[in-house]
């Protein structure tokens, strides 16, 4: 099951857990109210998993690739990690399925507080278009993930502030309806 919690305010190494004290865990229902969806799948059978195929068909995820984020596999590793950790949004959903390793997705709640979502092998997450978020590895410094898209991939990240984008406006309206 997914592990998520409110983050502390520390500027320490982002690869650490950064749990707020006292602990403030976040459940699946709270994530759903933010538009964040989560599945637990069997990553060892990702190539022929009927459950993954069902999700892809239902949500029109027609394109996919696999990325490995580690010092020896990703060109410009340090630069890419800094870029992934910069607060940003996308105009399309962001879908990631962890095939190996682990890392953190951080998302903003409706009050602009950071929620950290620990992702490990078998975890799949969908972040809605317009949500401010960021990603970092944990202290193991390794993740292998499947990236899924509806249609052709769009890699554009809009660093904050990006409130002028229609996707952000739609997301803010979504949050107001779920409050």
Automatic annotation (TrEMBL):
Matching InterPro entries: ARD, ARD_euk, RmlC-like_jellyroll, RmlC_Cupin_sf
Primary site of residence: membrane
Residues that bind Ni(2+): 88, 90, 94, 133
Signal sequence bounds: none
GO molecular function: acireductone dioxygenase (Ni2+-requiring) activity; acireductone dioxygenase [iron(II)-requiring] activity; iron ion binding; nickel cation binding
Enzyme class: oxidoreductase
Coiled coil: none
Topology of the protein relative to the lipid bilayer: Peripheral membrane protein
Location in or out of the cell: Cell membrane; Cytoplasm; Nucleus
Pathway membership, UniProt: Amino-acid biosynthesis; L-methionine biosynthesis via salvage pathway; L-methionine from S-methyl-5-thio-alpha-D-ribose 1-phosphate: step 5/6
Alphabetically ordered keywords of this record: Amino-acid biosynthesis, Cell membrane, Cytoplasm, Dioxygenase, Iron, Membrane, Metal-binding, Methionine biosynthesis, Nickel, Nucleus, Oxidoreductase
Pfam families: ARD
Any one GO CC term of the record: nucleus
One example of a Gene Ontology biological process annotation: methionine metabolic process
Disordered: annotated segments: 1-24
Residue spans of biased composition, Basic and acidic residues class: 12-22
EC number: 1.13.11.53, 1.13.11.54
Cofactor dependence: Ni(2+); Fe(2+)
Catalytic activity from the UniProt record: 1,2-dihydroxy-5-(methylsulfanyl)pent-1-en-3-one + O2 = 3-(methylsulfanyl)propanoate + CO + formate + 2 H(+); 1,2-dihydroxy-5-(methylsulfanyl)pent-1-en-3-one + O2 = 4-methylsulfanyl-2-oxobutanoate + formate + 2 H(+)
Gene3D superfamilies: Jelly Rolls
Functional summary from the UniProt entry: Catalyzes 2 different reactions between oxygen and the acireductone 1,2-dihydroxy-3-keto-5-methylthiopentene (DHK-MTPene) depending upon the metal bound in the active site. Fe-containing acireductone dioxygenase (Fe-ARD) produces formate and 2-keto-4-methylthiobutyrate (KMTB), the alpha-ketoacid precursor of methionine in the methionine recycle pathway. Ni-containing acireductone dioxygenase (Ni-ARD) produces methylthiopropionate, carbon monoxide and formate, and does not lie on the methionine recycle pathway. Also down-regulates cell migration mediated by MMP14.
PANTHER family: ACIREDUCTONE DIOXYGENASE
Family membership noted in the UniProt record: Belongs to the acireductone dioxygenase (ARD) family.
Protein name as catalogued: Acireductone dioxygenase
Protein source organism: Canis lupus familiaris (Dog)
């Amino acid at each position: 099951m997914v592990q998520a919690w409110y983050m502390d305010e520390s500027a320490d190494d982002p690869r650490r857990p950064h749990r707020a004290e006292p602990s403030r865990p976040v459940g699946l229902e709270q994530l759903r109210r933010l538009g964040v969806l989560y599945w637990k799948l069997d990553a060892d059978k990702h190539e022929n998993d009927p459950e993954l195929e069902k999700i892809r068909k239902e949500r029109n995820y027609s394109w996919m690739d696999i990325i490995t984020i580690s010092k020896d596999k990703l060109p410009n590793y340090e630069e890419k990690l800094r870029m992934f950790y910069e607060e940003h949004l996308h105009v399309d959903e962001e879908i990631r399925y962890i095939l190996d390793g682990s890392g953190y997705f951080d998302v903003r709640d409706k009050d602009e507080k950071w929620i950290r979502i620990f992702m490990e092998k078998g975890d799949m997450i969908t972040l809605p278009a317009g949500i401010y978020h960021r990603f970092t590895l944990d202290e193991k410094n390794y993740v292998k993930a499947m990236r899924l898209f509806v249609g052709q991939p769009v890699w554009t990240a809009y660093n904050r502030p990006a409130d002028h984008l229609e996707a952000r406006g739609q997301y803010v309206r979504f949050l107001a309806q779920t409050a």
